[in-house]
């Protein structure tokens, strides 16, 4: 009987210490990021979606915005810590054949920690971010 109590006490202490080691996330704000911003200390960002900066023509077709056209890498890229990262999903026709191929995309949503630098890339895409505070 004593050994059962000691075992129970042992497991309760382990559970209590593990439960105390966890942090809580508290909603802070929703924001749109296009220019370079850094995730603040004691915060994390959840990247939910990207609004691409590719204007449409009067007929409704997408056109170019400088180097930002539907076929350019930059049109669907954001920059995370200096690395251009394609986000989203889909297929796009290959320019050199009638085949289609799938680009390698980073799936949304994804999380980035404090200190990470984020921007909308060369096309100034707008990134929908939910900011959370890390609380003990």
List the helices and strands and how they pair.
Layout: H1 2-21, E1 24-33, E2 37-38, E3 43-51, E4 77-80, E5 83-86, E6 91-93, E7 100-102, E8 110-112, E9 117-119, E10 126-135
Antiparallel strand pairs: 1-10, 2-9, 3-8, 3-10, 4-5, 4-9, 6-7
Describe the fold and architecture.
The protein has one helix at 2-21; strands at 24-33, 37-38, 43-51, 77-80, 83-86, 91-93, 100-102, 110-112, 117-119, 126-135. The protein is mainly beta. The two termini are 37 Å apart. It has 1 helix and 10 strands, in the order H-E-E-E-E-E-E-E-E-E-E. Strand 4 and strand 5 (83-86) form a beta hairpin. The model has no long low-confidence stretch (mean pLDDT 76). The protein is 15% helix and 38% strand. The protein has one domain. The strands form 3 sheets. The chain has a 4-stranded antiparallel β-sheet with strand order 1-10-3-8, with no helix packed on it.
- Distance N terminus to C terminus? 37 Å
Q: Into which percentage range does the β-strand content fall?
A: 35-45%
Q: Give the % helix.
A: 10-25%
Number of helices: 1
What's the overall geometry? elongated
User: Which strand order does the major sheet show?
Assistant: 1-10-3-8
How many independent structural domains?
Answer: 1
Series of H and E elements: HEEEEEEEEEE
Characterize this entry briefly:
The protein is mainly beta and 136 residues long. The chain has one domain.
Notable traits:
136 residues; mainly beta; 4-stranded antiparallel sheet; 10 strands; 38% strand; elongated
């Amino acid at each position: 009987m004593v050994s059962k109590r000691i075992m129970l006490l042992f497991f309760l202490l382990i559970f209590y210490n593990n439960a105390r080691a966890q942090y809580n996330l508290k909603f802070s704000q929703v924001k749109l990021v296009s220019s370079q911003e850094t995730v603040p200390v004691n915060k994390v960002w959840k990247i939910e979606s990207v609004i691409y900066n590719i204007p449409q023509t009067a007929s409704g077709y997408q056109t170019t915005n400088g180097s930002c056209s539907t076929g350019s890498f930059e049109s669907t890229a954001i920059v995370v810590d200096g690395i251009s990262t394609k986000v989203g999903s889909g297929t796009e026709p290959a320019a050199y054949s009638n085949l289609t191929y799938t680009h390698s995309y980073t799936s949304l949503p994804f999380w980035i920690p404090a200190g990470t630098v984020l921007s909308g890339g060369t096309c100034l895409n707008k990134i929908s971010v939910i900011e959370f505070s890390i609380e003990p």
